[in-house]
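Kindly inspect both lines:
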Amino acid sequence: MTHVKTAADNHRLVVDYQDQPRELTALWLREHSPAPDTLDPRTGQRLIEAAALPLDLRIEQADADGKRLWVHFSDGHQAEFDLDALLKTSSEKAEKPLWDASLEQTPQADFHAALEDDGALLEMLEGLHRYGFVLVSNVPTTEDGMQALIERVGPLRRTNWGGIADVKSVANAYDLTMTQRGLEPHTDNPYRDPIPGYIWLHCLTNAADGGDNTLVDGYRAAEVLRERNPDAFDALTRVWPTFRYQDDTTHLESEGPLIELNSRGETVRVRYSNRTERVPALPADELEAYYAARREFYQLITGDELTLHLKLNPGQMLIMDNYRLFHGRRAYELAGGVRHMRQGYVDRDSTASRRLVLRRQLAHSDSEEVA
């Protein structure tokens, strides 16, 4: 049963729905009205100016029946609400299980299935959303082999390095990724605005000795730090380093904390880039606290407790959430053979949009079949 009652001189409504009482203001309910004179039926965009609604708006009458709510407001407006839609809370955290080195089953997808079938593509994108990475097999081992699947999700994010770029050891490397050295766990390009959302790393050949990829769930690392040392966690959310990249034709700078929180205090983005970080000249006490916290975080993200090890085979591809995952690699020796990867970026908004639209379309298609 659903129970409703007014409160605060009818300026608020208490809704007891699914045994969870919620107190909602009249203004909040009014601006969320789905009525066609408030919300455009075609675009779903608001037609009224919410900021112009009267601050003393009251609820004249309210009734509920199961999952429906009817409200009559003091400005004469009447609205009918679907309570599931109205009171839906963010399930992002529940959709994203945190993992560590003990993760037994990595999310996987088949390139051709995802290319040809919307259900398989959605399954791939759901795995990427939940775990922050997915391992895709049977990718054509040509230089632009992953391009067709990117275009199913995309568009490809172009940077000063072009679109899909080589990741292999070269003379006069413009970036340390183009050398044989190992790379510490890091996020890509924190000096860009916006930071690329997803990294697509495609293996053409990997016969070199070493060169294994490492993955760490940055959300898990942040929560471990919060549990073990709340002061260190707080320091990494408050200090905003600058990240900088320069070459002969490019100068890129951006800033942000190593652990970024949303309005609910949940980690929504991590950064780590020892090669490009520049810490501002803060007061000495704050700097000392930051450096101690950064060291503890570094020890976490480089330790065995949280690190997964994968060695990509030709025709395999990792898609990684660059807001969530730290990735790196072991050093490699070319005496064992060639290691040639190709890498591209796809932004976060287009990836999320593709997933949510496919989820809606396939759910609608399933409901029509049932009907």
The longest helix spans residues 348-370.
